Amino acid sequence: MNELNRRAFLQATGTAMAAAPFAKAATSAQSPRWRKAFMLGGRTSGPILPTFQMLKEAGFEGVELISPNKLDRDEVLKARDETGLVIHGVSGGVHWAKPLSDPDPEVVEEGLKAIRQEVLDCKAYGGTTVLVVPAVVTPKVSHRQAYERSQAAIRQLVPMAQEHSMFLAIEEVWNRFLLSAPEFARYVDEFQSSWVKAYFDVGNVVEFGYPQEWVHELGPRIAKIHIKEYTKKDRFNPKLGDGKEIDWPAVRQALIDVDYRGWITAEVGLGDLAAMRDVVARMDQVLGPF
Question: What is the DSSP string of the chain?
Fold first, then answer.
């Protein structure tokens, strides 16, 4: 390559390399970063199609169901297909009553049995995550015991999760367990499995810290996001955007910083069509246009 051609080549490749980050940014800005979903926490039986139709009309793209449940699977799949709503995952229905940290092995086995059913249900629905509350600390179950017992139990589930390409998404809740972001990250990392992730709930950590810090700490470990409002006075009762304790712009920026892309699910009360449209609008309000 002569000198003239070499200079032209270097100039062209240098320009392309300089422009690459901006092209990537432009592409990211054009494609939706997050998708809105609603958690149907109270629906474990009965006709589901009317609810799916309402949520779709309100502006949601997906739903999260409780499992195990008494819903007719064929009816659920029909409602999914008719409305186009994505059932992106399921949340465990018995993890409080049958915690994996219980000192009774029979209780733990019942909890494991329920999660195995959740994996199968979620697979049938076409979802990707099973939300798992890993443990409950009580006067009779220490934090260390909860830590060790729950990890031992969840390790039994990892082969099944891998077999079905299903993420076991650990959620931080008001269970006196995993009360700091670094501890939560370490807990997930110690499984040394790509099938064990974090299900981060913005509202659940406000009593103990700042959600944006947790997002930065958990980073790529985050599989899904729950959002709801929280204030120390009224707990989870305020509507999205009406509280004063969550710095929503900081949460939004943290999610962008860690490049989270995926489902953001509103964990709020189910209402009529007007109420659900209001939830969709409030999701845009607190996190910016999706």
Answer: --HHHHHHHHHHHHHHHHHHHHHHHHHHHHS-SEEEEEEETT-SSS--HHHHHHHHHHT--EEEEEES----HHHHHHHHHHH--EEEEEEESSTTTS-TT-SSHHHHHHHHHHHHHHHHHHHHHT--EEEE-----BTTB-HHHHHHHHHHHHHHHHHHHHHTT-EEEEE--SSS---SHHHHHHHHHTT--TTEEEEEETGGGTTTS-HHHHHHHHGGGEEEEEE---BTTTBT-SPTT--SS--HHHHHHHHHHTT--EEEEE-S----HHHHHHHHHHHHHHH---
Of 83, 164, 99, 180, nearest to 129 by C-alpha is 164
Integer Cα distance of 217 and 221 in angstroms: 9
Q: How far is CA 193 from CA 35, 144, 196, in A?
A: 26, 21, 6
Return the structure tokens found at 272.
């009529």
What's the whole-number mean pLDDT along residues 72-92?
97
pLDDT digits (tens, 9 = 90+) for 148-201: 999 999 999 999 999 999 999 999 999 999 999 999 999 999 999 999 999 999
266 contacts 227 by C-beta, under 8 angstroms: yes
Q: What global pTM score does this model have?
A: 0.87
**pLDDT tens-digit map of 108-132:** 999 999 999 999 999 999 999 999 9
pLDDT band at 53 (very low <50, low <70, confident <90, very high): very high
**CATH architecture of the domain with residue range 35-287:** Alpha-Beta Barrel (3.20)
Domain range list for the chain: 1-31, 35-287
Rounded to an integer, what distance in angstroms lies between the CA atom of residue 127 and that of residue 125? 6
Position 32 scores a pLDDT of 64
